[in-house]
Amino acid sequence: MADPATTAHASLHELEIALHHIFASKCLAIAGFCILIYDHLLTFPQEVELVWKQQRSWVSILFVLNRYITPLVLMVDIYDKGGLANFLPQSFCVNWYFAESAWNLVAFGLIHALVALRVRCNCFQASM
């Protein structure tokens, strides 16, 4: 039979490690979001020339959806899971969980579709 003091010490150590991982995860989420916004700011002039001043196409629409909805989703995610939102009702949290999951699937598909179109364009020297 294990000593209760040893068991309690081991449990507290595991809890300490878990809390450290949660803190690191929050820090990485904020750092990643800041890098994303910085990248958006750096590439905005090229975006204006290559997307906004050109004729609308379904490729440009996919690009804009991915570029601007993703940061909004990440903002709510950081607010919600970052420990800032203590007053949100459970119904919002449940609905947000499913909406965020759905957007992650859609964004994943959008990114892959855009990369596939870019590969096609490079391979066949076609303009999009």
TrEMBL record:
Q: Which Pfam families match?
A: DUF6533
As recorded in UniProt, coiled-coil segments are: none
Classify the source by domain of life: Eukaryota
Transmembrane annotation, as ranges: 17-38, 58-76, 96-119
Keywords, A to Z, come to: Membrane, Transmembrane, Transmembrane helix
> Which part of the chain is the DUF6533 domain?
27-72
Matching InterPro entries: DUF6533
> Can you say what this protein is called?
DUF6533 domain-containing protein
State the species of origin.
Rhizoctonia solani
